[in-house]
Design brief:
Helix content: 25-40%
Structural class: alpha/beta
Strand content: 15-25%
Distance between the termini: 61 Å
Length: 157
């Protein structure tokens, strides 16, 4: 039996216009989101995905370090207060492993809390956002850090 296989050829431009291809830009900045509250980390990852980032999540600093060793992120977003190692110590180690990685921390602690003041005295100064962190506030910070990709529209909140 000789069967003729008919395959329709569709120009790539039509596929893009139809919305089947998500991005024309192949680069998606890699962001590592770390929070010991899984729902918070997963929600933040969903927001970053919608903004055009490639996201990784970790629920402990130790798990985050394992990811950094394999895939160095361009951006680390971490809660300061984590179970085990804190977010500031994590940020210091990540900067050693991936010196080009930008760091953004968030916390429900006041800026003059002992852990933050101690880190500053040791020479570790990281941008710190307060919890709850609103997407619009986060977008402003990312834009100031030159890390807001233009590939997708952002969530307005």
């Amino acid at each position: 039996m000789n069967h003729q296989l008919k395959i329709e050829v569709v120009p790539l431009a039509e596929v893009v216009r139809a919305g089947i291809v998500a991005d024309a830009d192949p680069h998606r900045p890699v962001v590592l989101i770390v929070d010991d509250e899984e729902i918070v980390a997963d929600t933040r990852a969903a927001i970053f995905d919608s903004w055009g980032y490639a996201t990784m999540t970790a629920y402990t600093a130790e798990a985050a370090l394992e990811l950094v060793e394999v895939i160095p992120p361009e951006l680390l977003i971490s809660d300061v207060m984590l179970t085990g190692m804190n977010g500031i110590d994590l940020a210091v180690i990540v900067q050693r492993i991936a010196p080009d990685c930008k760091i953004l921390l968030f916390s429900g602690l006041p800026a003059n809390s002992e852990i933050i003041v101690s880190a500053r005295k040791a020479g570790h100064e990281f941008p710190l956002l307060e919890k709850p962190m609103r997407p619009a506030q986060l977008q402003i910070q990312l834009t100031e850090m030159n890390l807001m990709p233009n590939v997708r529209s952002a969530v307005a909140v």
